Amino acid sequence: MVIAETLMGVQLVRSAIKGIKDVINTCEDVSEIAHHIDNVFQGEEQVNRRIAAKKKKQQKKGQWYSFIASRLKSDDEGDGTSIQEIAQELIEKKQIEQQRTALAHLLNRRFGADTWSSIMKIRFERIEKLKEKRKAALQRAKEEAWERKRFWKKTGEESGKLLIVLGVIVGMYYYISYACKGCI
After folding, report:
1. Per residue, what are the HEC states of the chain?
2. pLDDT tens per residue across span 25-60
3. What is the span of the domain harbouring residue 70?
4. Does 133 lie in the same domain as 90?
């Protein structure tokens, strides 16, 4: 399964590069091949996510898991230290890097010397803006939650005070009616 996921990411990058090579000479501007460029980035992100998930999963394994696995010798997923896994990760990254370099050369040759660097710069700026926007939205959500919590706490306190005042008024009424022997 892991190999299939990896091949999907690498194959996505390769097919995108092949698509770009097929239409690079006939396209008018970069927008005609933009979906292929998106596929390159998506394939790279798939591979990076898979590697990050694998590392995160390995970090979750504690001492108890290591002890059991060493006793049972049934760790069929691998622990990330085998030569095969390390070589596979490294080769995948190198292949994607080569494909991106080839893409940069194709675009720069067809549309001008700084096309790829402009694309990467704009992409980086948009990603940073998106991160800032998400961070601001998260901060707003935290502030709204805090305000809501404060509102309900204040409402509870004031409701409690109202109940105490009503209790005192009712108690005074019954005391006066008892002391007055039915005057009220």
Report:
1. CHHHHHHHHHHHHHHHHHHHHHHCCCCCCHHHHHHHHHHHHHHHHHHHHHHHHHHHHHHHCCHHHHHHHHHHCCCCCCCCCCHHHHHHHHHHHHHHHHHHHHHHHHHHHHHCCCHHHHHHHHHHHHHHHHHHHHHHHHHHHHHHHHHHHHHHHHHHHHHHHHHHHHHHHHHHHHHHHHHCCCCC
2. 777 777 777 888 888 888 888 888 888 887 777 666
3. 2-113
4. no
What are 80's two structure tokens?
Answer: 């990330």
* Residue 145 and residue 104 share a domain: no
Q: Express each pLDDT in 112-159 by its tens digit.
A: 888 889 988 998 999 999 999 999 999 999 999 999 999 999 999 999
End residue of a domain, out of 88, 113, 138: 113
Number of domains into which the chain is organized? 2
pLDDT of residue 58: 67
